[in-house]
Amino acid sequence: MNKKIHLICLGVLSVLVFNTGYAKEPKNLDLVKGVLIQYHDSGEYEKEQAKVINHAMQYLKIRLKRAKQKTETKKLAIVLDIDETSLSNYSDMKKMSFGGTLRQIMDAQANGTDSAITPTLKLYQYAKANNIAVFFVTGRTEPYRAATEKNLTNAGYTKWDGLSLKGDTYKERSAAPYKIRARSLIENQGYDIILNIGDQQSDLTGGHADKTFKLPNPYYLIP
Predict the structure, then answer these.
(1) Which end of the chain, N or C, is less surrounded by CB atoms within 10 Å?
(2) The CATH number of 30-214 is which of 3.90.230.10, 3.40.50.1000, 3.40.50.410, 3.40.50.300?
(3) Run of H or E including 214
(4) Residue 184 has pLDDT above 70, yes or no
């Protein structure tokens, strides 16, 4: 074999042996779960939630000031997601080791024992005290309406102006089209949605809100 060709072959072999090895091992799942627990238990999770809600509250107060000056021409409203925005499923997620089937997750929600996310509840109460309509738009489905209403009430969310749940026949891969339509219907009632708050990007895309605010959620992703 020609010496030059021989050296090229050795070089190619070297690349194959040393540069096409196994992919880097991902971080151990139990270690990741430990990080998620620490994020919650350290208080950092609630601090991040409070930071986002504080920004939303500041904008809410600006719009209220305009309303008092009679510069607003429409009824004001805010839209809130429920899970990991208004109510926390953390205790259920932890019990299921941040896993579980969709049915198990829905059954846990049906227990109606999820606690309020404190910063969101404070914003809700402030909005209602200042005659701003509040609508919940959730990815939960219609069979869970009664349990959801009971849970919201028990957690301190009372006298909301609307609760939209997803129909059982919804087949879209993303929750975004359903949530966009729900906000559009609220606008059709004559409301200006000044705030739309959620923990997923799919809660917020598609317009029909003056400002959007995303809460942190490292626990799951809904497209």
Answers:
(1) N
(2) 3.40.50.1000
(3) strand 211-214
(4) yes
